[in-house]
Amino acid sequence: MDLINQNLLTILILLPVIGAVLTLAHQMFWKQESQLKWVTLGFTVLNFLVSLVLFSKSAAAGASGYFFEQNVPWIKAINTNYHVGVDGLSFWLVILTTFIMPIAVISTWHAVEKRATAFYVFLLLLESAMIGVFVSLDLLVFYLFFEASLVPMFFLIGIWGGENRIYAAVKFFIFTALGSLLMLVAIISLYYIHADATGVGTFDLVTLLNTMKLGQLSFTGPLANAGTLLFMAFALAFAIKVPLFPFHTWLPDAHTEAPTAGSVILAAVLLKMGTYGLMRFNFALFPDQSREWAWLFITLAIIGIIYGALVAMVQPDVKRLVAYSSVAHMGFVILGMFSFTESGMQGALFTMLSHGVTTGALFLLVGFIYERRHTRAITEFGGLANVMPTYATLFVITTMASIGLPFLNGFVGEFMIMIGMFGSHALSVTSSVNWNYVATMFAGTGVIFAAVYLLWMVQRVFFGKVTNDKNRSLADLTMREIGLMVPLLALMVYMGVFPKPFLKRSEMAIRSIQERVMGQAGGLIDHAGAPPAKEAPKAEH
Amino acid sequence: MNTLFLTDLLAPSVNVTVILPELIVAVAGIIVMLYDSFFPKQRMVSGAISLIGLAASGVLLATMWGGYEQGTSWGGMIAHDNLRLGFSFVFLFVSAMTILISTVWVEREDVPAGEYHALLMFATFGMMMMSAGNDLVVIFLGLETLSIATYVMAGLRRADLRSNESAMKYFILGSFASAFLLYGMALVYGATGSTGLTQIAEKVANPNFPALLLVGGAMMLIGFGFKIAMAPFHVWTPDVYEGAPTPITGFMAAGPKAAAFASFIRIFVLGFPLIAGVQASALLHQSWTSALAVLAMLTMIIGNVAAVMQSNVKRMLAYSSIAHAGYALVGFIGAGSAKTPQAREEAIAAVAFYMLTYAVTNLGAFAIVTLLAQKNDRRTEFEDYNGIGFRSPVLAFSLSLFMLSLLGLPLTAGFMGKILVFRPALEAGSTLLTIMVVVAVVNTAISAYYYLRLIVVMFFRERTTEWVEPKMPIGLAAALAIAVLGVFYFGIFSESVIQKFSHLPSANVIKAEK
Question: A264 vs chain B: nearest CA distance in angstroms?
């Protein structure tokens, strides 16, 4: 048990890789492509079970505040270490990843006919990279996993995608790579800034933060400009990944062309890397810059919420509609994060999780109907509720969760974000002028728009008479498909009714990030003339 | 050392063991040549002799690493430091890989093997002399030995017009560049009164060196710029690379380029150092670093943008090699701007390591391109790669790996190389160099387009024409395996190699600074 505890995160990262190798070997020696999905499923389920060990209380947090920490030198010449660990921020994201993977595998049970070996290998490699992103505490290792996650996704979209897959895959890759390469420059610069301050260069996040806590390094004063540039380089990489308006254009293409499993993983996990990165790196390393530029991110987030909703409204393709709804939802997450209130940031993390579950479910549902009809155009459907009652029921529940109906998961996060934004000082210009109400108001309209585009789509697809003869003989969901949806639906309800256990886990981590951003000298926004406030007001619970 | 004593003439400081690795390679070349004239057409034997020679030389180099004092011998003409050892290792590796890759000719065409192997060995000898030379004359002799052998190898396919054109172009433009280089060396000699780099570095410390040195430096910059395919002196590259037989193209992109970098670095970084408090040396240093920084940016942009537009894989790789010269220049300039000898040593090691990672990756890619090109390099268009992904998965996935490594994706050799060369430039902390690094990463993103294009073509498109997987000779298979393992090894376990490359401070020329 000790052995597992000490190496838990490494096991989580390596298990899928081992699975991929075994998948390849299995295909090479037995040539039974139909068995591969069992191998893959076995490994993803195993990884999920292993990840449940994270819940155990037997492991205590290390001195740095991370659980299951492991720190092994990797390349001494450039002082980079394989340093991994989880805290409240990454905990749920790791679980979300391992939870969503078996579902993604089962969702492709019959869909992948060509090149199944490669498909499952890429799926497993992707899982490994995603877990790596959420647990690395060394900037270079983080970058490594961040980039490594691109390649399997590139292949997944490019080989098993739809009509326009090549365009979508290349766009996805180049957009994300450009952002993250600039982040690489920032990472190396940080190394030398730390070397200038202390004599030793480092890529280690914990060391960097400690140096900053000791006051030996601060991105204020002479380093303020450098700090802003570095902050922007990190933020750009993550903003593209989130995606934040106006960097979102790769997302609808990638989502629409990707195979169902790809879309599910993309929505559920890959997008979260961006928001996670902002909280983990931007907020922690550049608290002053985060406050200073909060207005920009809040503005872009609000534009994203409203723009995403409006564009979603006019989409003729269901999958594209869901993709744009992702843009809007991720806008909420950014909004909550940059409110710098505990409630807002907790809400942001909660929305990340619930968006993963809900939108993942929506993409699965769209995939089911696509497998039957090989089209996703809304006009092709109508009155499906008559033919496929179970499907319609599940779809409507999921839609409601996405809209944010109380007692379902979407509501909790969005509500907390709104409360957080309402009480936020991130937008205060002077002591008496604060734009937080305006921001909350605009964001609130986004919720209404979400109801409009989703319900309208549901109405056109499911209700009324069956208008298209091709739809009359559609089979309702199979047991496999229902079985896929049940855990997701259960989670939606559970998260909506009992959000407490989820929030409890992340509380400490979120609070320390929030205090780090707001508790610095200067307190609030560094606009000229703004009086420093000592303590950020805690959002009420 | 400036004055020549009679005793020096009678008993020069000859230390044969120091240049034994070079000698072994040269002797192996001579043996191959002789053997071929007595027993012609024995391809395997001449290849084996060459490989043994390279291996023996490599073993000697390995024992020399750390076993000798840093310094110079042969009256200061031969340097013995990490710059030499690191780069020499790259050359031996490149030549051995080239021999393995060209086993493909056994199957297909009648290229005079003995001559070819002998020329390759002489070229290797030239490259090693270039990295070992601590004297302008030795460097120039090494360069010419290398160049003449390479001109001939480019035209090895006598019946092929493209190969002839390639050799002719390379010869004429190369001679032109050599002339520039020689002229520059002559001017530097005129300015400093010496061809030894140690003495030149001492002269730079003198506040009153003649302006002739600046002109000489500029001339040499042009000459080396041509050899490393730096914009705007890169124009020959695509034509020569496209026309030359593919294994030779791979060799040219990896070997001679690295050799030119080795002497380029030795002359400029170690010969024209920045000496604190001497304004004139600051002027010289400032001129060459800022000139190179601008040219490096130009090289990266031209190389990448032009590569995007190619429809021929060999031409694409040619432009990509121009772009990679630009990335390596980033590390080179970082070495030039380093503030401490330690940082400079690390930066030089970074460039050597970069050339090694580039060589591994690029030769791997050329091995596959050679194999797929069929007889006389007919199939080198992007279209010829359509949809082969799942028909020849081993080849296609290896080629994809090499493309991702050239792109610089983590866990591959290319990533480590890029990190290491960008580091010193950022360490210097100057605005121009930081902009240069940003230009470099933006260019990396551009390069994603054309590297991915090969993957797109192989995996995402369907093949419309018939596909017969070419038979893979054992030598080429070995080269491929080495390249794949190398890409991962240098990407993940590069620790020991980097340590080796930057282990000892090179004391010989640095002491001139004190």
Answer: 21
Nearest to A166 among B416, B434, B460 (CB): B460
Question: How many residues comprise chain B?
Answer: 514
Is B39's Cβ below 8 Å from some Cβ in A? no
Instruction: Tell me the C-alpha to C-alpha distance, in Å, between residue A480 and each of A19, A49, A368.
Output: 23, 21, 11
The angle formed by the CA atoms of residues A51, A16 and A487, to the nearest 5 degrees, is 50
Nearest CA-CA distance, residue A197 and chain B, Å? 13
Contact A170 B427 (CB under 8 A): no
Instruction: Give the separation between CA B137 and CA B263, rounded to whole angstroms.
Output: 11
State the pLDDT at residue B506: 41
Task: Band the pLDDT of B3: cuts 50, 70, 90.
Answer: low
Distance (Å, whole) CA B444 – CA B455: 16
Residue B198: how many other CB atoms lie within 10 Å: 22
- B343 to chain A, any CB pair closer than 8 A? The answer is no
Encode A362-397 in three state secondary structure: HHHHHHHHHHHHCCCEHHHCCCHHHHCHHHHHHHHH
Nearest CA in chain B to A173: B448
CA-closest candidate to residue A67, choices A157, A6, A152, A128:
A6
CB atoms B460 and A173 under 8 Å:
no
Please tell me the distance from the alpha carbon of residue A175 to that of residue A187, in angstroms, as a whole number: 19
Distance CA B488, CA B410 (A): 10
Is the pLDDT at B99 greater than 60, yes or no?
yes
The answer to whether B127 and B248 have CB atoms below 8 angstroms apart is: no
Tokens of A369: 């109907």
- Beta-carbon pairs below 8 A across chains A and B: 94
Centre a 10 Å sphere on the Cβ of residue A31 and count the other Cβ atoms it contains: 9
CA distances from A257 to A165, A188, A368, A383, B149 (A): 5, 35, 15, 26, 52
The H or E element containing residue B80 is strand B78-80
Query: Given the structure tokens 């492509």, which residue do they identify?
Result: A33
Contact of A75 with chain B, judged by CB distance below 8 Å, is answered with yes
Q: CA B476, B482, B483, B484 torsion: positive or negative?
A: positive
| A170 Cβ under 8 Å from any chain B Cβ | yes
Q: Do B423 and A78 touch (CB under 8 A)?
A: yes
**Contact by Cβ (8 Å): A450, A327:** no
Q: Chain B within 8 Å of A181 (Cβ-Cβ)? A: yes
Structure confidence at residue B505 (pLDDT): 42
| Pairing mode of beta strands B71-73, A67-75 | unpaired
> ipTM value of the model?
0.86
A283 neighbors A517 (Cβ within 8 angstroms): yes
Q: Which residues of B touch A150 (CB under 8 A)?
A: 409
Phi and psi at residue B465, to the nearest 5°: -100, 175
Q: Cβ-count burial of A281 within 10 angstroms (0-12 exposed, 13-18 middle, 19+ buried)? A: buried
Maximum distance among all Cα pairs of chain A, rounded to whole angstroms: 74
DSSP characters for A61-91? P-TTS-EEEEEEEEEGGGTEEEEEEE-HHHH
For residue B462, how many C-alpha atoms fall within 13 Å in the half-sphere facing its CB? 5
- Give the residue-averaged pLDDT of B147-173: 89
Find out whether B377 and B440 touch, Cβ atoms under 8 Å. Answer: no
Which pTM value belongs to this model?
0.89
Q: How many angstroms separate the CA of residue A166 from the nearest CA in chain B?
A: 7
Helices (H) and strands (E) in chain A, counts: 23, 2
